[in-house]
Amino acid sequence: MSCLETIQAYGVRALGYGERLLPRSDFTLCEQVTLIGSGMIWNIYFGALALVCGFFLATVVALAKNVPSPWLRKPAEAFVFVFRGSPLFIQFFLAYEAFVLLPKAGIPVNLGFVLITVETAWLTKAWAGALIVLFLNTAAYSGEIFYGALRAVPRGDLEAADAYGLTGWARFRRVVWPTMLRLAWPAYTNEAIFLFHATTLVYFSGFPAWKQQGDALYYANYFADKTFNPFVPYPIVATYFVLLTLVVIGFFGLVNRRLNRHLPQSNRPRLRIRPQVIR
Amino acid sequence: MFEFCSDPEALERLRWFACYLSNGKHMAFYASFGTVMVLLAITAPVAMAFGFAGASAARSRILPIRWLGKGYTAIVRGVPDIVFFLFFVIALDQAFEWMRHQIKCPDWADPIRQGNDFIVCGAAKLPLNTAPQWIHETYGFFLAVLTFAIVFGAFAANVLFGAMRAVPMAQLETAAAYGMSERQTFWRVLVPQMWLYALPGLSNLWLILVKATPLLFLLGVEDIVYWARELGGFVNPRFTDYPHGDWRLFYFLGLLVFYLFLTWGSERVLARLTKRLSHGQATMGGEAARREAQA
């Protein structure tokens, strides 16, 4: 098979299209690069969706943590503690076992006038179950970042908002929230990189890969197991992730520029990238 | 363990659980918590040593050594560490076997890499095929510790390198003015002072290390995750005295609580350590401690 044919056969194999059987012997470099690359689709899917959804929950969590009333504050603190204090690996296992225990046929819900059945089978699939875990996890981590930034919003900004007669939602929307984001952005960029790295854990924890549709590391592990040679597939994953990290940094840098556009050039904070280890 | 456990089927609920939770497999499960603790106890100092060596190398005046130190810290960043965990274990294993092969079987004619296979002579196998089971397990654990130490050493090197640079220049210049040699300055002035600056980063790293321990399972060590899956799964009444359904959820809940406690405890110890280290330092924390002592 030429390399072009390989790409046609395996380019989107991770989504279940193309050739069904994975290569079994005489692995070419092209096959490895193509299949691992097709696995990256899942890493990007998990990372991007969890990040987008997590962003909103994180804002809510940060605000809840900042409220004086313990009825809101304590649950938010507990949420952050549980998800930041335990390994993501265990969270995946736990979530999978919990989802498996749900009745397969669905849960009947009686709405009074009509009986509907809530489907639960899809929760045990990685695309939904792992996404929920990643979403909650990143919400907890970024919630803590946003909370720190929220506490760091300068008092002068709030006083200025008061002086302009801004209150409630308008004050939050126009003063508090943008400043919070601006302050949190460098740390949040790291969190985003960190989250993309964490997506590699999905198929190594409870969630099984269905019909051999896995992420980049799943295929890399497949090749390493078959060839007993870790020196080709793992560096390929590493290269893909370095590229992905660069894209994330580029995108977050653009947002950072927009968030800081009102500041004079010299005062703008630069993004300092410090990718972290496992969570 | 208890005498009344001889006939599990006749037990009432509380006693059944007492027997169930103290059977042989559960003892192995409890021991695996020890494995995790041993891993932490060994890895943390070794990673610190790696990190210290890396940070010192990155400060070296000799260019190749500096490259080595910087390269070590740079490589591990930017790539998911789980990739490293999977990679290093096979790579280290093969590297050890290859070295032993070169020494023990110099007249081996076949190539080591035959297509997809990695073949060394029998005497170079690690551990030897004839070795007892516990040596195989210890070797696996040793590889895991080494992998953890290499990966976390790189992060510690990063933290320590930053901390060494954070020590005020005036301190080092004073040492030089007193006629201390470079070596003396490093050991007597720089190293004692850098810990305060390194502590936030190191405590962060410690918490990450704690949370990375379930990865032992991926490295093939029989750790708590392994046992939780093993014990929690559905057990057929034909093969056991204690049949039960799928209880993995509860076992993993137990692990979750264990980790939460570990994190919570570490946070408290680290807070205390920070307070202690800032004692007598010309920083905000040190100043606060001084005021408190005076008042």
TrEMBL record, chain A:
Q: Which keywords does UniProt give here?
A: Cell inner membrane, Cell membrane, Membrane, Transmembrane, Transmembrane helix, Transport
Q: Where in the cell is it found?
A: Cell membrane
Q: Which residues cross the membrane?
A: 44-64, 76-102, 122-141, 192-211, 231-255
| Main location, first listed in the record | membrane
Instruction: Note whether Cytoplasm occurs among the keywords.
Output: no
SUPFAM superfamilies given for it?
MetI-like
Name the source's superkingdom.
Bacteria
Q: What Gene3D superfamilies does the annotation carry?
A: MetI-like
Cellular component aspect of the GO annotation: plasma membrane
The record, for PANTHER family, names: ARGININE ABC TRANSPORTER PERMEASE PROTEIN ARTM (PTHR30614:SF10), MEMBRANE COMPONENT OF AMINO ACID ABC TRANSPORTER (PTHR30614)
| This protein's name | Amino acid ABC transporter permease
Which source organism does the UniProt entry give?
Actibacterium mucosum KCTC 23349
UniProtKB/TrEMBL annotation, chain B:
Task: Enumerate the CDD domains for this protein.
Answer: TM_PBP2 (cd06261)
Q: Name one GO cellular component term.
A: plasma membrane
Membrane-spanning ranges: 27-53, 74-92, 139-161, 205-228, 248-266
Q: Which PROSITE patterns match?
A: ABC_TM1
Indicate where this protein is primarily found.
membrane
The UniProt keyword set, sorted, is:
Membrane, Transmembrane, Transmembrane helix, Transport
Record has Transmembrane helix as a keyword: yes
- Where is the ABC transmembrane type-1 domain positioned along the sequence? 29-268
Q: What is this protein called?
A: ABC transporter permease
